[in-house]
From TrEMBL:
It is found in: Membrane. It holds the Pfam family PhoLip_ATPase_C. It comes from Cryomyces antarcticus. Belongs to the cation transport ATPase (P-type) (TC 3.A.3) family. Type IV subfamily. The lineage of its organism: Eukaryota, Fungi, Dikarya, Ascomycota, Pezizomycotina. Its EC number is 7.6.2.1. Gene3D superfamilies: HAD superfamily/HAD-like. It is an enzyme of class 7 (translocase). This is Phospholipid-transporting ATPase.
Length: 365
């Protein structure tokens, strides 16, 4: 993903600079040729750091004027406006940038992430991790978050370009059902395009799948694919702006209010402040909600059945004359009172205590 910090001009000497930051995969083709970028980002990723590359381009006033006029022209076009604006930026600015440096940030796990993931797994929930990080970073985070246990092997598929080799890459997993899959965005796209059914059929059987180097669109596509293939409910959890499309594609979207802003929580169905709150949301509130909704549905069916049986018997006795047994306020009053009372009882109804529901997450299953 690319973020433009725009053009910043130093008015004293008339020099104009364009700064750009982005993922190393995008920036490698934009910055001038160098011999250390790939090596340094790989070293940082192996330590579990999230990397970002920063580049700069100095523009003369003439170059800036040329870019400015083309960009203004593109922004006024009626058809393909976004594409034409992006092509102007690519042609004038996004080439031969001077490589300023690489940043590596430690993305610390929140409190109680490990026990939360373990509890959710015991509750029978399959967990996939979709991230934009490098494969090395994703592997470090997955192991430290206990998404992958120490004794599980990780089958890695990266930089797969040929579709004829795709099925061979996943054939090993059929003989290793307990191993996890680590796949990058490029390989994932190849599977989604050419071998969608074979891939998803195998992937849903695995204990965990880690998809790294994923674009926001890919995250949403994966969520939709799992939903259509398994016909089960999908819950997507995210904390950043790049998780919004995935959250909206899910049956239930959960946004975490964190250091990355509130975009995810605003787009989600539920907003939580810490990942560990997810366990209470699902194992306690989710379970109770499901049971109570089922009971209320039975009440409503019972109520409707009483009215319709009585009305049917009355109609037969009245030789099918169009006369209503329950008239106006009587029908409304009965339906309202009969449905209203159980709602109050259901609020207080609980089959097990909250502590027990958390202690035995298998109850959720």
């Amino acid at each position: 993903s690319e973020n433009f910090s725009g053009d910043q001009g130093d008015r004293t000497d008339g020099e104009i600079c364009f700064f750009q930051k982005g993922a190393d995969t995008v920036m490698t083709s934009i910055v001038a040729s160098n011999d250390w970028l790939d090596e340094e980002t790989a070293n940082m990723a192996r330590e579990g750091l999230r990397t970002l590359v920063v580049g700069r381009k100095r523009l003369s006033p003439q170059q800036y004027q040329s870019f400015s006029s083309d960009y203004t022209q593109a922004s006024l076009s009626f058809q393909g406006r976004d594409a034409s604006m992006a092509s102007v930026v690519a042609n004038h600015l996004e080439r031969d940038l001077e490589l300023l440096g690489v940043t590596g940030v430690e993305d610390k796990l929140q409190k109680d992430v490990k026990p939360s993931l373990e509890l959710l797994r015991n509750a029978g929930i399959k967990i996939w991790m979709l991230t934009g990080d490098k494969p090395e970073t994703a592997r470090c985070v997955a192991v430290s978050a206990r998404l992958v246990s120490r004794n599980q092997s990780i089958h890695t598929i990266t930089k797969l370009k040929r579709k004829d080799l795709a099925l061979d890459a996943i054939s090993l997993l059929h003989s290793q059902p307990n191993s996890c899959l680590l796949i990058d965005g490029e390989s994932l796209q190849l599977f989604l395009t050419h071998h969608q059914d074979a891939f998803i059929e195998m992937a849903v059987r695995l204990p965990a799948v880690i998809a790294c180097r994923c674009s926001p669109t890919q995250k949403a596509d994966v969520a939709r694919l799992i939903k259509t293939h398994t016909r089960k409910r999908i819950c997507c959890i995210g904390d950043g702006g790049n998780d919004v499309s995935m959250i909206q594609a899910a049956d239930v979207g959960v946004g975490i209010v964190g250091k990355e802003g509130r975009q995810a929580s605003l787009a989600a169905d539920f907003s939580i402040t810490a990942f560990s709150h997810l366990t209470k949301l699902l194992v306690w509130h989710g379970r109770n909600s499901y049971k109570r909704s089922a009971k209320l549905a039975q009440f409503v069916i019972h109520r409707g059945l009483l009215i319709s049986v009585c009305q049917t018997v009355f109609s037969i006795a009245a030789h099918f004359e169009p006369i209503a047994l329950y008239r106006d306020w009587l029908l409304v009053g009965y339906a309202t009172l009969y449905t209203m009372t159980p709602v109050f009882s259901l609020v207080l109804d609980r089959d097990v205590d909250e502590g027990l529901a958390t202690l035995y997450p298998e109850l959720y299953k």
